[in-house]
Amino acid sequence: MLTSNLNARAATLDELLKTTVPAFLTPSPSRDTLRSWLDDAKVPRFKANPLATRGGGPCYYQVAGVEKLLRSKMFPGKPVAAS
Predict the structure, then answer these.
(1) What angle do CA 21, 2, 55 make, to 5 degrees?
(2) With CB atoms 3.0 to 4.6 Å apart as the test, which of 32, 63, 65, 70 could cross-link to 43 if both were Cys?
(3) Model pTM score
(4) SS3 labels along 8-39
(5) 76 preceded by cis ω (within 30°)?
(6) Rounded to an integer, what distance in angstroms lies between the CA atom of residue 23 and that of residue 32?
(7) Residue 46: CB atoms within 10 Å
């Protein structure tokens, strides 16, 4: 299922939409929606060329942060303890 990206620490939006996001959400959100979610949640990201303000290569997002965000979207509340 996710064997190609299982140990990834960083991925581009396109890679996330192909591998990580489908494991949590079906159908996957649009690229713009995903970017908005990641930016709003302040998921760590970096560029291959940090001096480039526009362009300069792809922007990578921390996969663990993306997974944490998607889990919180799926399960927003804390589980209720059984009595």
Answers:
(1) 55
(2) 65
(3) 0.72
(4) CCEECHHHHHHCCHHHCCCCCCCHHHHHHHHH
(5) no
(6) 19
(7) 11
Centroid of chain to Cα 49: 20
pLDDT score of 61 more than 70: yes
| Token representation of residue 81 | 């303890």
Q: Which two tokens stand for residue 39?
A: 């930016």
In Å, the largest CA–CA distance within the chain is 55
* pLDDT for position 50: 67
Please enumerate, as own/partner, the contacts of 29-33 that have beta carbons within 8 Å and a separation of 24 or more: none
Q: Can you tell me whether residue 45 is helix, strand or coil?
A: strand
